[in-house]
Amino acid sequence: MSQIAEQKLGSVQDAATSPIAQIVLDGLSRPQKTLPSFLFYDARGSDLFEEITRLPEYYPTRTEAAILVEAAPQIAAHTPPGAVLVEYGSGSSRKTEILLDALPNLAAYAPIDVSQSALAEASARLGRRFPTLRVIPTLGDFSAPLILPAGLSRRPRTGFFPGSTIGNFAPAEAAALLTHMAQGLGHGGKLIIGVDLLKDVSVLIPAYDDASGVTAAFNLNILARLNRELGADFDLQSFRHEARFNAAEGRIEMHLVSRHRQKIALLGCLFPFEAGESIHTENSYKYSIAQFKALAELAGWSCQRVWTDEGDLFSVHELHRGV
Ligand code: SAH
Ligand code: AVI
After folding, report:
1. Per-residue pLDDT tens for 127-169?
2. pTM higher than 0.90, yes or no?
3. Nearest one of 186, 188, 180 to 141, comparing CA atoms
4. Which residue's CA lies nearest to atom 12 of ligand 2?
5. Domain named Histidine-specific methyltransferase SAM-dependent: which ranges (predicted)?
6. For residue 125, what is the domain's CATH number?
7. Ligand 1 pocket test: which of 38, 52, 121, 283 has the largest number of ligand atoms within 8 Å of its C-beta?
């Protein structure tokens, strides 16, 4: 995944050499067609995600933000002065402001995101709100090696990975990503990570299939992106959004379901769809606190603290590099 950094294409002629071309061709060639969820986040997708975070049905954002407000003093007490705060998948960096308010003595804030528009907007806003804070944005894949400017390389590092973006990875990939973060954050490193909790399907499904259709638009936007950037000919009206709960795997799945039999042309290939056949676009794993702790420990972290809300909807964990 480390080549996904710059996916904006000059023209459709460049499409075949795009870093995402092979990933998309591979995904659509599988018996269960799939697309990786990082493709959601072009400029339009990042805006739609922000809209999702404000939906009444989408409990994770407001719940995690409220937990962070409560936890911020304790998080600050365990963050050494002069540390670098590294955020993985920072998006709009809205929740970051809660931590930054409590952490006036950081050496720098280093957000990493694949969305150029989200990263640029957030960096500009934070620059205005925290004029003395050094902001070092990185456009790219958070699973690539972490590179900080030489002057900061010996500073202690605290990672921040909110939003339950870890849930968008299957457990084995999530463990690999957490191991990668442990390495990148170095000796004495800490990680503040948001993890959505398993709950009743009657709450989960509306969170991923809201009444106003914003999540549907977010899911379908991936096809618009493939049309624009890879010259595909998806008719967006010919697919519908579906959120499914996979109880055996403990995850919500998002699919785009073909409304009828059709063929899609993309980069010189034809992809046939039966009526009802889907493209699997996202997994969102939901954990118990014990399950997530086990995963984090497998990846070399020790769990120091966990905070939840009263309804046990969401959790925020403070992990330290294992001894
Ligand atoms: N942290 C924010 C945004 C979560 S949305 C919040 O909690 O609300 C997930 C974010 O991760 C998006 O901004 C998306 O662009 C980014 N993202 C997804 N996969 C990524 C990857 N592999 N590398 C870097 N950023 C990624
Ligand atoms: C970013 N990620 C954790 C979100 C989630 O809940 O899995 C993305 C999302 N997909 C649909 N709604 C929100």
Report:
1. 999 999 999 999 999 999 999 999 999 999 999 999 999 999 9
2. yes
3. 180
4. 208
5. 22-319
6. 3.40.50.150
7. 38
